[in-house]
Fold:
Amino acid sequence: MGQTETTKFELDLYQALTEQFGDSITGQSLSCGQSSISVKSEAIFDLAQFLSENDKFGFELLSDICGVDWIDCPEKRFELIYNFFSIAHNCRLLIRTTLADRGDDLNPTIRSIQPIYSGADWLEREVYDMLGIEFEGHPDLRRIITPDGLEGWPHRKDFPLHYEEPQFSHNKDNPPEITK
Amino acid sequence: MTSSAPSKTMTLNLGPQHPATHGVLRVILELDGETIVKATPDLGYLHTGIEKTAEDKLYYKVIPLTDRMDYLAPMSNNLGYVLAVEKLLGIEVPEKVKWSRVLLTEITRLNNHLVWLGTHALDVGAMSMLLYTFRERELIMDIYESVSGARMMSSYFRVGGLACDLPLDFDKKVKNILKVFPERMNEYENLLTNNRIWIKRLTNVGRITAEQALNMSLTGPLLRSTGVSYDVRKAEPYSGYENFDFDVPVGKTGDCFDRYLIRMEEMRQSLRIIEQALKGMPEGPYQADVPGVVLPPKKEVLTNMEAMIFHFKIITEGFKVPAGSFYQSIESPKGELGFYMVSDGSTKPYRMRVRPPSFINLQALTPMIEGALVADVITCIGSIDIVLGEVDR
Structure:
């Protein structure tokens, strides 16, 4: 959806999604000519299944999963953006969903779409690693990039950018002196 | 050994210092004899927190961070970032900027594929290839140096244009590449394409099917080797790629040898694009006229008071980007490189998400090598074409 004009395929797709997931779709937004659909987080698995299995609207490729921390926003804390691409129809579809809307639940959970798109495996692990969002049903949810002993979630906005180096298990008892 | 003896597996730790892992990739292999039973990649040895660091930098200061991710294709990374920011700002760049960006990113593709070819062949045992490819890479490094002053970390593209105009001897240098390259490509092919050892080491190694590749979100030569023709330059043209005539090579079997052939053909196609871009390069300014975002020319700064003030304000305060979000994808040499930028209306990105092609393509390693031999691991890692700076970011 790089272009501003909406194609017939996109209109059909929106209609089909509204028919199928009418209650779960909370809105549709447009930013710089790129439109996206907001859904409730419970519907993500069914939606992914619909997109992968539907003959008419086949989205073969899960491009990306991106997590954003909206710490100062009163109505949402975390936002996940699922980025699907259909090669056959040359169409990009951004699905947004929010988690921990009241801001009190700091370890929110969402259902993993790894069983449908196996490419989601590392993408979900990275979101978990960076934001602490747990994916229910993921077969191997471990930290992927940061070390296992790290405390905190680096991409959260309350994770400090500059601070003392963390000490990991091999030198916890006898930490090296940090000179500044 | 009797058949009742329990089968024992051995754990082998490949990397992170092993040179054939192209950096600091660690793979924990569980072996039964020489056959791999299980492979677990372990990442993060080169994690630098670029996405987080970008949240604390002014928009123009993020550009040097981007080319430190995929340091073999710096201009492609610069391009993805500046296109995303330009889209958020609503800037349309002059034609000359578009054409020079296409030309330079295609040169970058040559650079990436040359390093890939040299190191891949070195891993597999054809040691002389590296010397040949690095000889040609020098020509490209010269171009980088003459346009940006740096041989690797170019940071040449700016939001709204280029850092400075193309140098006077640019045409001559690019023409030289166009002249010598086809002949040198034949040299590589003479050394490898019909080489029996090369064919034996690559054919039917690391095979994946189209369904597997799509399901694993693979892009770039890895996906195209299975027969799926997906190239962002054709699917969602950016920076004027719709004006260029080129083919997208696809493979049939999805093995390492197909990926080799595809990348070789991509280099030839890049040469076609470079030739067209050089021939049709329009005249015009090298940056858009957007006061407050694009730095005024140096001559103006020294003679004109407003220009001086703009220069000072952009450097110290940065420029504000309207609130919104945009996903911009480009075809980097390794696959689909995406920048998802979120702006809250301030002078720094609220969130910069990079869709790294190397990271996602590396997921294919486990299915490729399970059941294969240890020697094939090296072939597969080379064939996926990863840069750990981008995998770990």
Remarks:
- The CA atoms of residues 226 and 253 of chain B lie 6 Å apart.
- Chain B has 17 helices and eight strands.
